[in-house]
Amino acid sequence: MAAGIVGYGAHLPRHRIKVEEIAKVWGADAPSYKKGLMLREKSVPPPDMDTITLSVEAARRALIRSGGVDAADIGAIYIGSESHPYAVKPSGTTVAEAIGATPDIHCADFEFACKAGSEAMYVALSHVKAGEMKYALAIAADTSQGAPSDALEFSAAAGAGAFIMGTENLVAEIQHTHSYMTDMPDFWRREHEFYPQHGGRFTGEEAYFAHTKGASNAILKKSGMKPSDFAYAIFHQPNGKFPQRVALELGFTQEQIDPGWLAPTLGNTYSGASPIGLTATLDVAKPGDMIFMCSYGSGAGSDSFIWKVTERIDEVRDMTVRTRKLLEENLTYIDYGTYAKFRHKIIKNK
Amino acid sequence: MTMFSSRNWREYPHRYRTEASKFKKSGKTYIPKRLVDPETGDTEQETVRLPETGKVLTHTIIRIAPSQWGDKAPYALAIIELTDGTRLMAQMTDVEMDDVKVGMEVRLEFRRVQSEGSHGVISYGYKAVPKWY
Amino acid sequence: MRTVCVVGVGMGKWGEIWRMSLRDLHTQAALSAIEAAGVDHLDSLYVGCMSGGLFVGQEHLASLLTDYMGMRGLAATRVESACASGGMAVRSAFIEVASGMSDIVMASGVEKMTDVDGDDATYALATAADQEYEVFHGATFPGLYAMMAVAHMEKYGTTRDMLSAVAVKNHNNGSMNPVAQYPFKISMEQVAKSVMVADPLHILDCSPITDGAAAVILASEEVAKKLGKPYIKITGTAIGTDTIQLAQRDDLTTIKAATIASGKALEMAGKKIDDIQFAEVHDCFTIAEIMVAESIGKYKPGKAGEAFLAGESALDGSFPINSSGGLKSKGHPVGATGVAQVVEVYKQLTGQAESGRQIPGSPKVAMTQNMGGSGGSSVVHVMEVA
After folding, report:
1. Which residue, A32, B21, C241, C345, is the most exposed by fewest CB within 10 angstroms?
2. In the CATH hierarchy, which fold is given to the domain comprising B4-130?
3. Binary contact (C198, B64; C-beta < 8 A)
4. Which residues of A are catalytic?
């Protein structure tokens, strides 16, 4: 049975901090960070924004683009994030309540480093494909923290993408999926710890690249397709450089990744990264376009997806704000002091 | 403060989904929902969800706030008239204090409104942001 | 209905009274009112207090206070309507005497506000607003009145100077009131340059946090005559209410509860607003005095500010307002304020206002207007010389 995306939406904070502003505080060399990470600035959530609020806004936009899906018909809400506001208490039920999808619903919060969002998409798709429910909502959202002065601080950002999966009235039909995982100690955060730890350069070749290539090559083989068959491709983007490199090495072109390559000015939205990239890509895709997508989550694994865009995209893309507009307009740049206050990095001892 | 979570929970329909009472006789809409139309005494009503956009009727900047707001002050507060004529009070967010003006067009967004420190419940609800798209 | 008279009043010094508790503050005011009236007993007591619970952790005040007054066994009732609690206590006492049920009834008010810090006082006061739909969103009382001020400025062109003039005038009057918390004069410039609390209201637009109590003794005219002391008559009393949720008011620039209460009280007294020669009104914020003067019908909407700038509300103006110094200078121990307004009118109508503060021309008819919250309740009394 055909299954896929019925409605999609994204949400991003309007606040940005530039690499120079962070580098200045830690005496780091901004030009080399900008070059090394291929990243100029990142989004910062204000104190009243978190994974749940980003999810609600993204989900509301997905509902708008679904063209009249009744929230009560959504059978499941899965939120992938490594920054759920509560350690114990689901994010999904709050989102369900806010969009009017309670009480006949299945909710679960997923966690798999940066792959939790695509994981939610994978499970949601499986449910509708199996006929378990009419619609399933998958949300990929994060408000990630990097430890002060750590390389991650230059990239850890916030954003959300939401997808209502169904079997009718699709804007993008799923063609193939493939998942590829191994046990990989490249990045982790222990229980009760505030900031994640990582293996430095060990997060590259054997981690990000091995898994994204593993999932990508497998799905290409499975589908019998080659990079040139796709209009667009989106890869997990912990910075600007990694997705560009993996894309080019796999045989994709810069033009194919451009619409969904958000990290240079958005930063790493963790679970949100490739899903938000997909929303930005759908915003510009044409009916019939094939879209390649591959996530990556430390620990480690990649989910790859092949989507085929339908006629309906022309009708829905401008029903609400486009992702690029959220990325590029209405911005406000903050200094490190404001950023430190927003992200609770100031110890008040009270 | 142990009862705070139940008090907040009870208001979810209003805070999460802006559910309101629309009374049959007067056609007037009120948030939160109420049993009786204060103007006509009418009890016949339907639950409606309020539009998400409106304009600022009046506003202030709270510079000295009660203890639970801690370091959130200064923050802007406004009375907003939504496009259907319903009025509500909401905090303004994502806005420079000096930019808040009577007549400013706003959109309601889902945000954290309060939280009991880092240990207690987080209260979500609507806040108003300048309408920019 | 019997004629009801004010036969004696009592008040201690208001301010940060560190050495006195809520019960002591009340006892001091109550006993001085009893002494002033020369009554040998009370039939009952109504005490107005907004939030003994949040300010000092004490409820069940009526019994506690009668005990400390040395009157165990006395019928006593606590009355609450936020900052209008005191005025409501006066009205309750009035009804009991007017009905003929009792001859001598005390109305008192008390608030002990300084035992909590500023944040907690702001919180306690904010409980008079809608907890779930105003306070939840971060509203404070200065904030609510600030929003009314912005609306008033927007609609009528009310200015900073008009607001400042209220504070300057009230501090001038208060400088001559020995019980006032802040008995000093201030300048227009000082108000405008003081720290901002909730734009456009500065700290000198706001009434202070105050410890204080006030008491009045109401009696039938028969008793009043027998006592042989100066007395005045309460000829009108009325309550007005409105939604406490500011957002749900049709007009943010007027206080409907005050309009209702003044209209009814004037009607009861058989008077028109222009018969009133001076008034004590609820200037919890400078904008409130302007809005109340308009809401009670003394000035057309948007016209009070100009009149105040021209000096009409000064002691020697055509309509003196807050000869006591008002809440602004005298202080605002919320539960006591409405009772203290009656204390001031009693002093003025019996010619006993302290030196310099006596309104010239021996006025004969006055009004008090006491307000709860942002105007969710208002109680008005019309009083006349005997």
Report:
1. A32
2. OB fold (Dihydrolipoamide Acetyltransferase, E2P) (2.40.50)
3. yes
4. 82, 114, 236
